[in-house]
Amino acid sequence: MKPKPIKEVKARIQQHRRVGVDYFRLRLLCPEIARLAQPGQFVMLRVSDSSDPLLRRPFSFFRIFPPQTKKRKRPEDEGALEICYQVVGRGTSRMTQLREGERLDVLGPLGKGFWPEEGRSLAILIGGGIGVAPLVAWAEQLRREQGKKKRFSKTSGNLKEVLVLIGGKSRDKIPGIREFMRMGLEPQIATEDGSLGFQGLATDLLERELVTQGHKSAALYSCGPLPMLARVAQITDQFDLPCQVLLESRMACGVGACLGCAVKVRDRTLRGALEDEDARAQGAAVHLEDRCGEEMAGSWREGLAPIIAEPPAFFRYVRGCKEGPVFEARDILWE
Ligand SMILES: Cc1cc2nc3c(=O)[nH]c(=O)nc-3n(C[C@H](O)[C@H](O)[C@H](O)COP(=O)(O)OP(=O)(O)OC[C@H]3O[C@@H](n4cnc5c(N)ncnc54)[C@H](O)[C@@H]3O)c2cc1C
Ligand code: FES
After folding, report:
1. What is the largest CA-CA distance in the chain?
2. Rounded Cα distance, 148 and 248, in Å
């Protein structure tokens, strides 16, 4: 497969504003990256010209405005990217001082973003806190593709509905509510302190939805704190629904060179080989019964027991920045 292009750009800051106590939105003009960007992918930002902090910091796309050949109503949207960030430490504190008009070193687009689950009529987007940010870009893309669904019949052509479930500690810790509303989506909201919507967790909303509505044809897309994602994975496993999760593992290089973002996943290759062996062995056992009777086949099967028994969870480490940050939830070993 051809490697995906990655650009390093000095992007001009078009807009930078506070949108909550410790949430900010940063809009960068960089058509080179906006042209290629997909929801769920990310950029690495060098937040300072000095060596402090030394490493770039990763941020998901909150909104993507790819450059278009057609004339736009708002020329300022031409080839821009927007990120929504939460101030947590040195790098993000430094970012709050960035001024409109300044230039910022941006590397991207990086990683593997969300992909549409074929043949599913409902997309459920479930996010927590700042993890809601990349779901806004994904919802925008799904809505766009819904609009021209005839042309996209192979991927999201069956998609009829998008349901958004979002939560946070309090009402000011959930980004994107206005953007979802603008897309015509009515997000269901949960806050831990009860300041907005249902008092509880976004995963409570998900359980309620799945128990009461069934939603057998749903596919889930999720981002948020790790314990939330682990719970989403558990619930979707119980309901046997496909689920993609965006993991915000700590990253140093962001391009697959340092192995600093290791994610433990099930090893499908080994498991697959073993399952094939089981299938072959079971097929052979049926064949054997036909030929030599049940008694003999029974003792033969006993010999195979160690292989047929539930195989141990084979695992390996993959790079969150290259093979992710979006993974199938059932591949992750949640420990
Ligand atoms: C693929 C990806 C996408 C991301 N998208 C966004 C986004 O859209 N908006 C946003 O606000 N943040 C996002 N993050 C998290 C963001 O990169 C970190 O919050 C940021 O790097 C912290 O930098 P800092 O220098 O301020 O904090 P540091 O001084 O490095 O750390 C301060 C605190 O932040 C925590 N922290 C550091 N890195 C992470 C991380 N990767 N995830 C969770 N906690 C972390 C540390 O544990 C520590 O407690 C994303 C991370 C990844 C890997
Ligand atoms: S951050 Fe360096 S390999 Fe992923």
Report:
1. 82
2. 31
Q: What is the pLDDT of residue 154?
A: 52
Measured in angstroms, how far is the CA atom of residue 251 from the centroid of ligand 2?
6
Task: For 172, list phi and psi in degrees, rounded to 5.
Answer: -85, 10
77: its two tokens: 């949207």
pTM: 0.86
Q: Beta strands 57-60 and 42-46: pairing type?
A: antiparallel
CB within 8 Å of 282: residues ≥ 6 apart:
308
* Of residues 277, 270, 267, the one with CA closest to residue 309: 277
In tens, the pLDDT along 95-108 reads 999 999 999 999 99
pLDDT tens sequence across 120-160: 999 999 999 999 999 999 999 999 988 776 554 555 568 88
3-state DSSP assignment of residue 56 = coil
For ligand 1, say whether the CB of 215 is within 6 Å of any of its atoms: no
25 forms beta bridges with 17, 84
Mutational pocket test of ligand 2: of 41, 250, 321, 327, the residue with most ligand atoms within 8 Å of the beta carbon? 321
Does the CB atom of residue 24 touch ligand 1 within 6 A?
Answer: no
Query: Which residue has its alpha carbon closest to ligand 1 atom 23?
Result: 91
pLDDT of residue 149: 61
Query: In the chain, which residues have pLDDT < 50?
Result: 152, 274, 279-281, 283-312
- For atom 20 of ligand 1, the residue with the nearest CA is 57
pLDDT tens-digit map of 165-183 = 999 999 999 999 999 999 9
Q: Is the CB of 44 under 6 A from ligand 1?
A: no
- CA 209 – ligand 1 centroid, Å: 30
**Ligand 1 atom with minimal separation from the 95 CA:** 26
- Whether 83 lines ligand 1, by a CB cut-off of 6 Å, is yes
CA 238 and chain centroid, separation: 20
Q: Looking at the CA of 176, name the nearest ligand.
A: 1
In a 3-state reduction of DSSP, which class is residue 290?
helix
What pLDDT shows up at residue 291?
34
